[in-house]
């Protein structure tokens, strides 16, 4: 069973002469235990692809299945529940809450999702690995881009989701950190049997990926 499946998915924005086709007849599946990379230039449809995959927006046509459930058949509430319990998003804009310290960003996860978050020891190891401990008392506007990016990754992983969807998670990181994050994502996919899907233009991540797709003008093609 695929954990994520897109069948003939297209997404258009706007109408008439200003219409943009962001995704064209995309077919895609992802399974547990693999790190999948989707590589493409700016404007190629990466964020659109990822947000549709995670049920954050609906396609214009085609079908999206998350853990074998067609999301258009789910109530809003049921979809929210799946997103909360099954999917960890690392979004392009990080989406940290501006008035909360880094520590409180994690506490917020505890409030929204009350169970099955990472046990303390594993969480400490994650903070350590991503170099977040010195940042715990800071607010998002006191963080550099790379620091905010690492906090956003840790926050997504803290909820211990089965599916991790990451949008340009390494854009602000130096090469050493990119390698760490690449290894971490591969480890999570392989050891914990999760599905990790990363959209990026960062080809430094390619060595860690089990599968690689290119996306160009909204068209997806597998290259590995
Ligand atoms: N909400 C929207 N309304 C109108 N057009 C949109 C919307 N979202 C995306 N688009 C258009 O769809 C196309 C794909 O956008 P998308 O954000 O998916 O690209 P991307 O590959 O993530 O780019 P980047 O690397 O710059 O983040 C672009 O032409 C964009 O302008
Ligand atoms: Mg994008």
From TrEMBL:
One BP annotation, GO: amino acid transport
Pfam annotation, one family: ABC_tran
InterPro entries: AAA+_ATPase, ABC_transporter-like_ATP-bd, ABC_transporter-like_CS, ABC_transpr_LolD-like, MacB-like_ATP-bd, P-loop_NTPase
GO molecular function: ATP binding; ATP hydrolysis activity; transmembrane transporter activity
Keywords from the UniProt entry: Amino-acid transport, ATP-binding, Cell membrane, Membrane, Nucleotide-binding, Transport
Subcellular location: Cell membrane
Annotated GO CC locations: membrane protein complex; plasma membrane
SUPFAM superfamilies: P-loop containing nucleoside triphosphate hydrolases
Signal sequence residues: none
Positions in coiled-coil regions: none
Domain of life of the organism encoding this protein: Bacteria
Bilayer-spanning residue ranges: none
Membrane topology: Peripheral membrane protein
Boundaries of every ABC transporter domain copy: 4-223
Presence of keyword Cell membrane: yes
Keyword Membrane: yes
Family, similarity comment: Belongs to the ABC transporter superfamily. HrtA family.
Function, in words: Part of the ABC transporter complex hrt involved in hemin import. Responsible for energy coupling to the transport system.
Subunit structure: The complex is composed of two ATP-binding proteins (HrtA), two transmembrane proteins (HrtB) and a solute-binding protein.
Name the record gives this protein: Putative hemin import ATP-binding protein HrtA
Source organism per UniProt: Weissella halotolerans DSM 20190
